[in-house]
Amino acid sequence: MSKEQNLGGYPTVDFKGDCGESKNEKNPNCAVSIGMAPHQEATVNGSPVSNCVIGNDEAKVYNILLTKTTGIYTYQVSVDAQGPKGAFSGYLHLAFTDESGDTYYLKIYSSSREQHTVNYNSDKPNIVKIWWCNYDFIVPSNNSTKPDYSVTSPDRVLES
């Protein structure tokens, strides 16, 4: 198996749903699974994530992995990705929804392939939905509180 297909060497969980670039700012693409648990990585429609989770101007996600971590946050979604290429090309917007219904957001802007992380706490941490779009979006939620999480991109840390 190639490095791209199984970067972490962990078991895969298959998400089913849309593939390709989402150009509709009101309707991001979404793929759903039974739940990606810690120490599992995603595939989409039976293929590597890189075949499906893409954005404008060569933006692409190569791998998504969920692990447990130490420190303030217990869980970490690691995303191997590159943002769009070219001046004013924008972002690849991603979101991850866990079993509790909390959603964690990540924006990929660098056109270099780099590792990005989303750290969070949850009583139901398994990731059940992956969302992506060329435009900023908000996932509808029944939860009344905003989840606490942090995003680490290669060259800066952003707090939610």
Walk me through the structure:
The chain has 160 residues and is an all-beta fold. It has strands at residues 12-17, 29-36, 40-44, 47-48, 60-68, 75-82, 92-98, 103-108, 114-120, 127-133, 149-153, 156-159. Strands 1, 2, 3, 4, 5, 6, 7, 8, 9, 10, 11 and 12 form a twelve-stranded mixed beta sheet that branches. A hairpin with a 2-residue loop joins strand 3 and strand 4. The relative contact order is 0.21.
Lay out the secondary structure:
Blueprint: E1 12-17, E2 29-36, E3 40-44, E4 47-48, E5 60-68, E6 75-82, E7 92-98, E8 103-108, E9 114-120, E10 127-133, E11 149-153, E12 156-159
Parallel strand pairs: 1-3
Antiparallel strand pairs: 1-2, 2-10, 3-4, 3-5, 5-6, 6-9, 7-8, 7-10, 9-11, 11-12
Q: N- to C-terminal separation?
A: 36 Å
Principal-axes geometry comes out as globular
**Number of separate strands:** 12
Q: Uncertain segments of ≥5 residues (pLDDT<50)?
A: 1-7, 155-160
Helix fraction, binned, reads under 10%
Mean pLDDT over the full residue set: 88
Q: Whole-number radius of gyration?
A: 14 Å
Structural class: mainly beta
Q: Note the total helix count.
A: 0
Biggest beta sheet summary: 12 strands, mixed
Note the run of SSEs as H and E: EEEEEEEEEEEE
Give the strand content. over 45%
